[in-house]
Amino acid sequence: MSVYEHIIVEGKGAVGLITLNRPKMLNALSFGVFGEIAAAVDDLEADDAIGCIVITGSEKAFAAGADIKEMQPKTFIDMFSSDFTAIGGDRVARCRKPTIAAVSGYALGGGCELAMMCDFIICSDTAKFGQPEITLGTIPGIGGTQRLTRAIGKAKAMDLCLTGRMMDAAEAERAGLVSRIVPADKLMDEVMAAAEKIAAMSRPAAAMAKEAVNRAFETPLSEGMNVERNLFHATFALEDRAEGMAAFIEKRKPVNKNR
Ligand code: CO8
User: Fold this and answer.
1) Which of 6, 25, 26 to mutate to test the pocket of ligand 1 (most atoms within 8 A of CB)?
2) Which portions of this protein are annotated as coiled-coil regions (predicted)?
3) pTM score
4) Which of 33, 68, 78, 146 is the pocket-test mutation for ligand 1 (most atoms within 8 Å of CB)?
5) Tens digit of each residue's pLDDT (9 = 90 or more) over 21-62
6) ipTM score assigned to the predicted complex
């Protein structure tokens, strides 16, 4: 296991919990934080005990964006050479285990983008989402113009990216950015329950379901349908599929072997 300075990583049963932990800076995402998130995903993905990963922040802020104080002196070549966007973000998006973002308070800029890299977002009624980069004279750099547009459509994505305004939890749910809104004091209970439920499913089936849904973001419908069909057929090679259907017929709970 790696040693972490800016995040807390815990294994809670079959759920890996990554908690961003820079409270004084509202969990601003520095290069170091992104590097640690990537290392944590590496660790949790390699850990057979873990079936689902949750990323969360504090009650006040999931993350208020990339660390502006760290970014301010950077030049084009600094950013280009470091390939910052590839460090943490892509690692979360490439994770094959299911991931959930548990968002309370601010999820702005890179914070909103990090949440969108997860498979889905459950938020508290205090959540606020936005891409305020334009107010700093820059634009989103790790998915805010792309994943947000695919998630909520052009009209709202343009509105958020061009005005820099925040969207509250209710608007985010209406727009399809989040899957559920939960009272703030119940957020982690609800997210952990969802994560435990997912972790108890057949792991290869969950990975295939995730891969198929993600293809809808990246390919035309016909290609996505092909991927889905192939993966669906592939589930018939799983012992878990045979067990799942037998258990249904025998009116009992399935025992997944994750193969
Ligand atoms: N970076 C650095 N420090 C921050 C950040 C941030 N993103 N957000 C908050 N802080 C710090 C504040 O400076 C303050 O520190 P200090 O006490 O030392 O002054 C502390 O956190 C508390 O913040 P506030 O006093 O501002 O708290 P408020 O409750 O008054 O306001 C807000 C909360 C509205 C969230 C406000 O802090 C804010 O507007 N933050 C900035 C939001 C923002 O613009 N985010 C976008 C950043 S750019 C980005 O994310 C680009 C992503 C591209 C990824 C690729 C990168 C290379």
Assistant:
1) 26
2) none
3) 0.96
4) 68
5) 999 999 999 999 999 999 999 999 999 999 999 999 999 999
6) 0.98
